[in-house]
Amino acid sequence: MIESVVTIGVFDGVHRGHRALIDTTVALARTEGLRPAAVTFDPHPMTVVRGLEIPLLTTPARRRALLLAEGIAHVHVCHFDAERAQQEPEAFVEEVLIRDLGARMVVVGEGFRFGRRASGDAGTLRAGGLIVHEVPTVSAGIDRISSTRIRGALVEGDVAEARALLGRPHRLEGVVTHGNKRGRTIGYPTANLGSMDRLLIPADGVYAGWLVRGEIAHGFDGEAALPAAISIGTNPTFDDVFERRVEAYVLDRDDLDLYGEYVAIDFEARIRGMERFDGIDALLAAMARDVAQARSILVDR
Length: 301
What we know:
Rossmann fold, 27% strand, alpha/beta, six-stranded antiparallel β-barrel, five-stranded parallel sheet, 2 domains, 13 strands
């Protein structure tokens, strides 16, 4: 059994607060000659414990890719169900941390709780024979950085705040599907994202961001991002769109054939809210302004 330093958490978003745990884990592993490992959970525990619908900041595949990119050598995904929710913390320590991962040390956040009715804490880990390192909370401004705070920013459309807390743009991923194809007829062909695997879609509006191609295990490694104007909503100027859509127009490109391709969209800044325009001419004028503003944010800076 390979002995490990293990950090524990949902790690949705792998944000700046999470990276404090990861950095401590990797540093300890290097010093002690141990394997840096992370335990994460899927689905989100609150969907089971409280029956809440928790939109995700990262797909499970991307979460794993980000953890590995930060220096974690092994990611252990615990399936979270009713049985896991009722597991006594001592049993979790013995089964997952010691038996499965060979944990010698554990890295957790300040105030960490786990197990049935959140009855386990750092003391429980120490009682199980583990060396515990508690990492202080990471804050930005007066509030701590958390996945909940980032979700709140995205619900309000504040992708710049989300970017600051994540340490990178918020990303949606999905397969490009066929839409109404109206954009192509008016000079702005768009890529419409299909099912996005429980990801949190920001508030309706128009955004500047990037369309990223070249999936490598949903990591999109080494691929150039294409500057894009992104629309989220039902396009209220027309009456034939009944569900929210995420569409990206790659600036000055009408030669891309993306149908059926798995792509990512990264959000840089919000341009405006979603509006209903009085006819196609007014809409086209607004779209021209949106594209110009997206270009100034992404290309001309």
